[in-house]
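In the design runs reported in the main text, the only information available to the sequence generator was the tokenized backbone. The following block is the verbatim input for one such run; it is reproduced so that readers can re-run the procedure and compare outputs position by position.
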């Protein structure tokens, strides 16, 4: 039994930074500023943390500016896309450099733009990978505060 556990651990080397962040996450009182922790990590570490803890347990609609990379086959990522769609509509925000791939190894959909059908209740596809940079010149704090109630890292206390 110990030998098989050793093989698993050596096959999938543990990343101390990722392990530490995942362990202390449940003890952090100020999840609103959890992005400060993510910002000092390497992209691969951030990705592992988001997968393990869940994007809705880490990110806040109050702080959405910047790059996003979302897997539409993961329910939490689809919820985050819906949050960003609501904000985009309320703030007339821009999704800069949007890229949609139907499969990870596929070429991007050429000249892809956000379809109106995605704004409907069941309009969001359940497959694909979406990446973009969210920028807003007109921050709508009321909408952001309402949407913050959906996630764990809602608003500062």
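Verbatim output:
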């Amino acid at each position: 039994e110990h030998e098989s556990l050793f093989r698993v651990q050596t096959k999938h080397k543990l990343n101390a930074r990722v392990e530490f962040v995942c362990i202390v996450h449940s003890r952090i009182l100020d999840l609103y500023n959890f992005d400060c922790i993510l910002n000092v990590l390497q992209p691969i570490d951030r990705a592992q943390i988001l997968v393990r803890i869940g994007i809705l347990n880490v990110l806040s609609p109050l702080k959405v500016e910047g790059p996003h990379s979302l897997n539409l086959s993961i329910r939490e990522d689809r919820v985050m896309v819906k949050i960003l769609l609501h904000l985009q509509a309320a703030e007339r925000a821009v999704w800069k450099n949007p890229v949609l791939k139907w499969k990870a190894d596929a070429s991007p959909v050429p000249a892809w733009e956000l379809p109106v059908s995605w704004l409907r209740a069941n309009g969001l596809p359940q497959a694909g990978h979406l990446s973009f940079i969210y920028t807003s010149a007109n921050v709508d704090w009321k909408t952001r505060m309402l949407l913050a109630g959906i996630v764990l890292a809602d608003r500062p206390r």
